[in-house]
Amino acid sequence: GGGGLGAAAGGIPTAGESGLRYTLQDLIQAIQSTIEPMSWDVMGGKGVCTPLGSMLIIKQTHPVHAQIDALLTAIRDEGGAVTLQAHWLLLGAEELDQLIDGNGRSPAPLKRDVLEDFSGSRPGYQGRITCFSDQTVSLVSGRRQSTVVSAIPVVGASSVAFQPVISLPNIGLLLEVRPTLLPDDKTAVLNLVSTVTSAGNEDKSVDVVSQATQDSNTTLKLDRFDLNTQRLATTVRVPVGQPVLVGGLSMVSDSHPNAGQPHDAQLYLVVEVTTDDAG
């Protein structure tokens, strides 16, 4: 009997869109080489499997469609959902000692009850995202503020003006991460970059002046924002279902610590990876 015509790859991200290590062509080759190989057009059969954007269009018999559906379901289950929880906590040295489990392992595992207490009572940020294993994702929180960073002179017949060059820096938090589950399903490798940017106390600007004629000139104001930035980039292996300390940074600033904050306070990054099967 003749089969239907349908999209068979829905829900399975490929290298072009998610960072996974296989492409649609790899998926087509796997289907055609493992499911009724002699039934496909490449071997003289009537079955057709062709890509359309990020989908596959497959024409086959009903029994072959059922086998393809089972294969794609197994692939989805193997690269299932991964949830990443991240905490940025401003802590002093004594508070950090309370948080760390103290068994000497690296990365340092943390006491969950203390983490929950600090997350609700200490300054900091939190973020949570769910994605496929080996998929690169990002979190951004903060505000965008347009700034004039440079100018392009525009000269007319008898006048001079400036075309401003605008930048939109993010003042806040940026996290880019790729969590990859290892075959044992008990550990994951995190490739991450964390950037926290805050505005300084004063915004400075400079004027660029061009004299068009003896009696007139053109002025453009260039923004010079005082931005404090903390950036942490690393690759680390972490246990699934256990919050761990990835790193911490002191803020380089002339300002004094906020009221009530320890003089040695640093911003620490804590992450936890969980899966559908964890807990």
Secondary structure: elements and pairs:
Blueprint: E1 5-7, H1 15-18, H2 24-34, E2 48-52, E3 55-59, H3 62-78, E4 81-91, H4 93-99, E5 108-109, H5 112-121, E6 124-132, E7 137-144, E8 147-155, E9 160-167, E10 170-181, E11 187-213, E12 216-239, E13 244-249, E14 266-275
Antiparallel strand pairs: 1-3, 2-3, 4-6, 4-14, 5-13, 7-10, 8-9, 10-11, 11-12, 13-14
Provide an overview of this structure:
The protein is an alpha+beta fold and 279 residues long. It has 5 helices and 14 strands. The chain has helices at 15-18, 24-34, 62-78, 93-99, 112-121; strands at residues 5-7, 48-52, 55-59, 81-91, 108-109, 124-132, 137-144, 147-155, 160-167, 170-181, 187-213, 216-239, 244-249, 266-275. Strands 5-13-14-4-6 form a 5-stranded antiparallel sheet. The protein has a 4-stranded antiparallel sheet with strand order 7-10-11-12, with no helix packed on it. The protein starts with a strand and ends with a strand. The relative contact order is 0.15. Residues 1-11 and 15-20 have low confidence and may be disordered.
